[in-house]
Amino acid sequence: MVDLFSKALLEKKVVFSIQKPQPRYWFNVPLGRSGMGLSNIANTFDHKLGVRVYLYNRYNADAALAQLFDQREQIETELGTKLIWNPNPENRDKIIGVYLDATFPNVKIGKNTATGW
After folding, report:
1. What element of type H or E holds 44?
2. What tens digit of pLDDT does each residue of 34-44 get?
3. 60: phi > 0 → left, psi -120 to 50 → alpha, else beta; which?
4. What are the chain's domains?
5. Nearest to residue 39, comparing CAs of 113, 111, 88, 96?
6. Residue 38, pLDDT score
7. What is the rounded distance in angstroms from the CA atom of residue 57 to the CA atom of residue 115?
8. Quick one: pLDDT at residue 34?
9. Cβ atoms of 7 and 17 closer than 8 Å
10. N or C: which end of the chain has fewer CB within 10 A?
């Protein structure tokens, strides 16, 4: 599944390089800025696909999250969806995420729907 998403990102020229797929439910894509990256999720156990902006504590994640949170309405309007902001406040690293319910067989989504999303 992760290999499928990696290929789709490269084909659509969303990113120009991808780390080698590993046997885990996420893979990271650098954003070109220190302290943050995109974490793409294909979690079959929890039945969800998702994308998270991952803010690393060693680069002052609290300040970065606060700055982005101030622009929350504008960001969510541009994306056309509500985001989940810092669901684990006790963690030192911070995340902002959006997820797609990929429960099978209740939701029938194909590879094109999943990678296009």
Report:
1. none
2. 889 888 887 77
3. left
4. 2-116 (3.30.1460)
5. 96
6. 87
7. 30
8. 85
9. no
10. C
Q: Which two tokens stand for residue 41?
A: 């999720």
State both tokens at 86: 């810092």
pLDDT of residue 109: 55
Residue 1 structure tokens: 């599944």
What confidence tens digit (pLDDT) does each residue in 91-113 have? 999 999 999 887 755 455 555 56
Task: Tell me how far apart the alpha carbons of residues 87 and 33 are, in angstroms, rounded to a whole number.
Answer: 23
SS3 state of residue 57: helix
Tokens in use for 111?
A: 């590879």
Number of other residues whose CB lies within 10 A of the CB of residue 41: 20
Which residue carries 């797609």 as its tokens?
100
Give the pLDDT band of residue 84 (cuts 50, 70, 90).
very high
Q: Which amino acid is at 22?
A: Q
DSSP of 62-108: HHHHHHHHTTHHHHHHHHTS--EE-S-TTSSSEEEEEEEE--TTTS-
Handedness of CA 17, 113, 22, 82 (dihedral sign): positive
